[in-house]
Design goal:
With 361 residues, the chain is an alpha+beta fold. 26% of the residues lie in helices and 19% in strands. The strands form six sheets. The protein has a five-stranded antiparallel β-sheet.
């Protein structure tokens, strides 16, 4: 028997015995020594993700520890090894995985959210998720490897070079994670030295909502997209009042709007898409085809059609060169303004959606 910290309801945690799971084939049991608290964990604690997280839930996906036991066929790990965990487990069978997009696997298990996490004394995980830690790295610092890896990946993908001004958007912790790798991972200079001449402009708290406002915790902060225009009611007016820009991320909403024709089994709000959003997405896709465009192109264009003074920028996740090429082509494709009119006429977007700019006549 082992003890675990469990999320049981909004703003409620308890400590309770949890049955130990003996590692089976392909599995390893580490003993977590340190566990980080991610922003996602805070969203869960506030009750913002109850539709996804089954209670009682053991959270924690940022961790460090040492191996206790290994499964019968595991050869690369031994008791005492210092490890952290890459908290993603995909099935390698769905269309997204076959296309090389494992990060949006239609059956993705985000360990610590969708399955038990590291806030327990013993934790059995697939051996394939383990990352070996240098023995010289203190375990309290090693617990931050996972979020630091995200920042390192961001900076590497951005291909920042000497002399460029880099704007880091986010709260203090998020910004700090990205500033550090950007400073230390500078472009190579003659002689093999690393450059550190970038200039970093702190932009402060990018959120337009005051402390205590429920929208600041993730409520009603979805990117505006054809299936959800709730941002018109709160996010965009608040941003306009505060003089803030809006970054529309997740315009494909977990994947449902990422293809010209939505398929069964795709994700919506990080869960299996219910029938109603799938039916609406397909109806919108049909109208897009009638106007010579596609559902993904419309999803990208939609947030930018708002005629207010709010500057709305669209951010797209891209895994490789092919996705970059595809998304750039979608962003540049012509989306007729008449599309939005027809979607309103058919009741597929709200009648009060303002789309007086954007697209082509």
């Amino acid at each position: 028997m082992t003890l675990a910290v469990r999320y049981t309801a909004a703003r409620t945690l308890d400590t309770a015995p949890a049955p130990g799971v003996e590692p089976g084939p392909g599995e390893v049991e580490p003993a977590p020594a340190y566990v980080g608290i991610c922003g996602t964990d805070l969203h869960i604690f506030h009750g913002d993700m109850d539709a996804r997280v089954a209670t009682p839930a053991v959270l924690g996906h940022e961790m460090s520890g040492r191996v206790l036991r290994v499964g019968p066929d595991v050869e690369d790990w031994a008791p005492g090894d210092a490890v952290t965990v890459m908290p993603l487990r995909w099935d390698d069978t769905c269309p997204a995985c076959h296309a090389g997009h494992q990060h949006i696997c239609q059956n993705l298990d985000f360990i610590g959210i969708d399955s038990p996490g590291a806030m327990q004394q013993r934790w059995t995980v697939p051996a394939s998720t383990l990352i070996r830690l240098p023995e010289a790295l203190p375990l309290d610092r090693a617990a931050l490897v996972e979020p630091t890896a995200v920042a390192v990946h961001d900076v590497g993908r951005a291909q920042v070079t000497d002399g460029e001004t880099t704007v880091v958007v986010g709260g203090p912790l998020t910004a700090g994670r990205r500033r550090g790798p950007a400073r230390s991972g500078g472009a190579a200079r003659p002689g093999g030295r690393r450059g550190h001449r970038r200039r970093y402009e702190p932009v402060g708290d990018a959120r337009p909502f005051p402390a205590g406002d429920r929208r600041r915790r993730g409520h009603a902060r979805r990117a505006p997209h054809p299936l959800d225009q709730s941002a018109l009611d709160d996010v965009l007016p608040a941003a306009r009042e505060a003089g803030k820009s809006v970054v529309a991320a997740g315009v494909f909403n977990s994947g449902l709007l990422s293809r010209p024709w939505p398929a069964d089994g795709m994700k919506y709000d990080y869960q299996d898409a219910p029938p109603e959003p799938v039916a609406r997405a397909r109806a919108i896709a049909e109208v897009c085809e009638e106007h010579g465009t596609s559902l993904p192109a419309a999803a990208i264009a939609f947030p930018t059609t708002h005629p207010s003074t709010v500057n709305v920028n669209v951010t797209l996740g891209m895994r490789d060169r092919a996705q970059v090429t595809q998304n750039v082509a979608l962003q540049r494709s012509a989306v007729p303004r008449t599309l939005w009119h027809d979607l309103r006429e058919r009741g597929l977007i709200r009648q009060d959606v303002p789309t007086t700019v954007g697209g082509v006549p």
